[in-house]
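To close the section, here is one more complete example, presented without commentary so you can practise reading it yourself. The ligand is adenosine-5'-diphosphate.
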Amino acid sequence: MLNLVLFGPPGAGKGTQSQKLIEKYGLIHLSTGDLLRNEIAQGTILGLEAKKLMDEGLLVPDEVVIGMISNKLDANPQAKGFIFDGFPRTVAQAAALDTLLSEKNTAISGMVALVVDDQELENRLLLRGKDSGRPDDANPEVIRKRINEYNSKTAPVAEFYKGQDKFTSINGIGSIEEIFGSVSSVVDQY
Ligand code: ADP
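Output:
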């Protein structure tokens, strides 16, 4: 199986690159942000709890997102592979993902990190907020909080995969096609 972790701060372009990777490699896209927004749209208890944290730019608890990912892995037994987008976002999530995949006799093939500086991220997220209607994209203070959560809790996840020799970073600034070319050349080596 080809199991890819797409990594990078909020606004790095993970969603955009995921869409292109799905088409090229026939993978299933698992975005914890999308799964959570889906829970919110359906008005579930999980969604109501998550919304409070998401609107403040904070991470939702590990067990919530790990449970959602576990369900999706079970629901797709025939998948050729998965793209994990926005997950794992903490080292505890990364360790749990390794366990879930090993139970299915598979593993993460590699992590590709999109590198974009903080100023560019803030600009992109404010622009996206105008079309997406996402409350967490509309407010500069919430955006900064998300970037802080990323730097304190999520950035260490890169070390986790570096320790397994599964980490590659690429420049996330440039045209969508240029960046996709770089991502693909990494994925083709897995
Ligand atoms: P972005 O990466 O652009 O910030 P996402 O759609 O991936 O957006 O996530 C939006 C919000 O959903 C996050 O700020 C966080 O509150 C929550 N979230 C998503 N994935 C996770 C996760 N793996 N662990 C904890 N919280 C998460």
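Once you have examined the tokens, check your reading against these statements. The pocket of adenosine-5'-diphosphate is lined by residues 10-11, 32-33, 36, 53-54, 57-60, 65, 86-87, 89, 93, 136, 146 (CB under 6 Å). The domain at 2-171 is CATH 3.40.50.300 (Rossmann fold).
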